[in-house]
Fold this sequence. Notes:
By secondary structure, this protein is α/β, with parallel strands linked by helices. The protein has helices at 18-31, 38-42, 54-62, 68-83, 92-102, 114-124, 148-157, 171-179, 197-200, 214-222, and strands at residues 5-8, 105-110, 132-135, 164-168, 183-186, 204-205. The chain has a six-stranded parallel sheet, sandwiched between helices.
Amino acid sequence: MRVRAFLFDFDGLLLDTELASRAGWELLYREHGHELPADLWATVVGTTHAPFDPMAHLEQLVGGALEREALNERRYAHEIALIEAEELRPGIADYLAAAGRHGLKRAIVSSSPREWVDMHLERLEEAVGWDAICTADRDPARAKPSPRLYLEALEALEVAADEAVAFEDSPNGVRAAKAAGVFCIAVPNEVTRDLGLEEAGADLVLDSLAELPPETLFSQLSQE
């Protein structure tokens, strides 16, 4: 296998936003005397159009309408405060550097809106150097587990599916990459660790990218 491109998910993979996102909703649920259901929350990770609506579910639990706008503002503020303390996940910087050394193209493939991705890349001083950034921009038809974003990234980079490696953290992301025909390495975080990444089709599951140096990956794939 000749690698010509790295395709990175964003939330939970480059930056651990998943724990902060869950924490924001947990805050609201606990303030109203309830717990956020872990099984239902798992369905929203890595996509934008899961059937589970946390706010609607909380309203059902409390038996009435809530002040959604005010609650969402507080939830978002709590989430952002947690995310701003986060840096690139372990091993990510090494893979970005390896892409530069080897002349690989690199892209972000995310179900999140473009402005969300750009905001955090700017803070991390990682906004420069991407050959493509493909985001769903609140369009459910584009969001994972649909392969559409991955297919768009491959087209933008002008590489074939078997020349790319995708890095994902969620089952929805893994399914999207594999449906596009891309070799997929899953690197779970605390939220996605027990969501069945192997069952979703990941070719390799790592606790951290730091445990597999890029040069070792290149060596292993060259033997595929």
